[in-house]
């Protein structure tokens, strides 16, 4: 820490008085973390402080570089030194200690590893399998795909989760003796029904005088949405399309000609 602070003072980024305050704040945070039972908030507060400090360092460095450029002095303007890396390294170390101490805390993992697809998959699987919260699991998958749109594993697991849920709905309807050929246009109505929020009204309607299979219709709709998004994100990945089709074949949704044709659309 001393070498880093000496470098900051030597470069004129922080004054001696400011550096003394930095030392004081860091000692306060380190004391909190060394307590027998440090709180998660202690780690987050330390991380926030170091993040703001490093942002200020970068801002002042850019300002000094612009002044040197105006004066026509470009010497050592872009040269990196210890203080350019120490702040980020410190933040990463604090995160690493925090996630080790609070292993099951997904908030920390998301803050530390927001672009790691496995974290989103794990969180969604937990909501789906353990908490039985399909809406939360779906939201996690969709947020994960916004952050990691090029992750094949995320697209595959998202499709697998949705089709697993449809299978559960199909089994539930069969067990309750409900009509298997009802068509439900609003997928959210199925979620409400599964959570016990259905008002008892008839969800099935006829389309063009025909009753279509619920599982196949909703499976087709979900496939089209997920598959289209996957192809747009990874247009050259034929391996991804193959993986999606293999999942559909395992569920029986890929047997129809329309389903197979849709799966190969580029």
Write a structural description.
The chain folds into 2 domains: about 1-110, no CATH class; about 115-265, no CATH class. The protein has 12 helices and no strands. The protein has helices at about 1-10, 15-35, 40-70, 85-100, 105-110, 115-130, 135-145, 150-175, 185-195, 215-235, 240-250, 255-265. The longest helix has about 30 residues, at about 40-70. Residues about 180-210 have low confidence and may be disordered. It has about 270 residues and is mostly helical. About 70% of the residues lie in helices and about 0% in strands.
Distinctive features:
snoRNA binding, nucleus, U3 small nucleolar RNA-associated protein 6 N-terminal domain-containing protein, 12 helices, repeat, single chain, 266 residues, mainly alpha, HAT
Q: Layout of helices and strands, plus pairs?
A:
Elements lengths: L1 H9 L5 H18 L6 H31 L12 H19 L4 H7 L4 H13 L4 H14 L4 H24 L11 H8 L19 H20 L4 H14 L5 H7 L3
Order of helices and strands: HHHHHHHHHHHH
Q: Span from first to last CA?
A: 55 Å
Summed up, the domain count is 2
Rg calculated over all Cα atoms? 27 Å
The global form is: elongated
Q: Major beta sheet, specifics?
A: none
- Class derived from helix and strand content: mainly alpha
Question: How would you sum up this structure in a few lines?
Answer:
One of its GO terms (biological process) is maturation of SSU-rRNA from tricistronic rRNA transcript (SSU-rRNA, 5.8S rRNA, LSU-rRNA). The chain has 266 residues and is mainly alpha-helical. The protein has 12 helices and no strands.
